[in-house]
Amino acid sequence: MKKRIALITGGFTGEHVVSLKSAAVVERTIDRDSYDVFKILIYPNDWYHETSSGEKILVNLNDFSLTIEGEKITFDGIFNILHGSPGEDGKLAGYFDMLGLPYTTCDALTSAITMNKAYTKAIVKDIEELYVARSLQLFKNSEENREKILKELRLPLFIKPNSGGSSIGMSKVKEPNELKDALDRAFAEDSQVLVEEFVSGREFSIGVYHAKGKTTVLPATEIVSSKEFFDFEAKYSAGVTEEITPGRMSEEEVERVKRIIEKVYLRLNCKGAVRIDYFLEHETGKFYFIEINTVPGQTETSLISQQVRAIGMEVRDFYTELIEEMFL
C-alpha cells in the first residue's frame, strides 16, 4: 500500500517563491509508484490543498488532515520543502512532533538553532580544522552599534539578517559611509543582524544527508559569481553565477572538507539533507564556515540536485531515501 506524503510548501517570508519552485520539482520527480503526494500550501492563517479541479481544501489543524469528497485524508509523513519560516525555523517541526508525524528535515531544536547564523557559529567554531570569521551579533540598529562595528571589526564586512535566507537583505560594506544603509536593509528583514569580516577565498556549497545507516557527503559545488557576492540575483538569475560540480579542490582539500562537514552534521544533530556553505581562504586554504541551510532548494538547477547527479544517483531515488529515513 502506498504511503501518503504531505509535501509542504509556501511560507511566511520572501523565500516562499523559491519554496514553490522547489515543491513543483519534488512533486514532479517523486516516486508515484510508492507514494501518494498531496501538496499543502502554508501561508499565514491559510493552510490548504488545491485539488486537480482547482478546489481549495482547508487543512484541519487539529490533526493535519484533509477531507476530500467526504473522505478524511491523513498522512504517513511530511516532505518539508518550505524555506524560511515556519518550515525551516523549527515551528512546523514542533507542531508535527506534537502530532506524532515524521518529517524529512531536522528536528525543532536543531532547526531553530541553525536558523540563527550567530548561534550556529558559536556551536561549531571549536570543531577541528574549522574556522569562522570574526563577527558581531546585533540586536539593535543604533549609532552606538555602528561605532562598535568600526572599532572592533575590519572592513570589508558582510551584513546579514541573522535568520534570513536566499541572501535577502544582505550587503557587502567596503566603506564606513555604506554601513548605515546596509544595517537598515538587514534590520528591515530581521530583529537580529550578523556583521562579519570578509574572508577572501573560493566559495563552495556542499550537501550532506543521512540515509541507509550512513552519512553521505556529496561533491561540493564551487560558486564563481560575477557579482560582488552570492546574493539573491546571483542565486536565482541565469548566467550570473558559474556553478562547478564537483568544485575544484585538491585531494587533501576534498578529504579535509569531508571530515569537517561530517562533524558539523553530527554536532548540530542534523537529519535529512542539509547544505553547508564555506570558503577556502586564498592565502592559507583554511576552511571558513559560512552557514548551514536545513531546507535546501530542490529546483532543477539547485546545488543539491547537481551534487546528487554528480555521484550517479537519480534525484528521484534521493527523495525516496529521504522519505524512508524519516520512518526509521
From TrEMBL:
Keyword Cytoplasm belongs to the record: yes
Q: What does it catalyze? A: 2 D-alanine + ATP = D-alanyl-D-alanine + ADP + phosphate + H(+)
Organism expressing this protein natively: Mongoliibacter ruber
Pfam families per UniProt? Dala_Dala_lig_C, Dala_Dala_lig_N
Q: Which domain of life is it from?
A: Bacteria
User: How and how many cofactors are bound, per the record note?
Assistant: Binds 2 magnesium or manganese ions per subunit.
What is annotated as the active site? E15, S166, S302
Q: Which molecular-function annotations from GO does this UniProt entry contain? A: ATP binding; D-alanine-D-alanine ligase activity; metal ion binding
EC number(s) on file: 6.3.2.4
Show the NCBIfam families listed in the entry: D_ala_D_alaTIGR (TIGR01205), PRK01372.1 (NF002378), PRK01966.1-3 (NF002527)
Q: Where along the chain is Mg(2+) 2 bound?
A: E291, N293
Specify the protein name. D-alanine--D-alanine ligase
An example of a Gene Ontology cellular component annotation for this protein is: cytoplasm
Its required cofactor(s), as named, are: Mg(2+); Mn(2+)
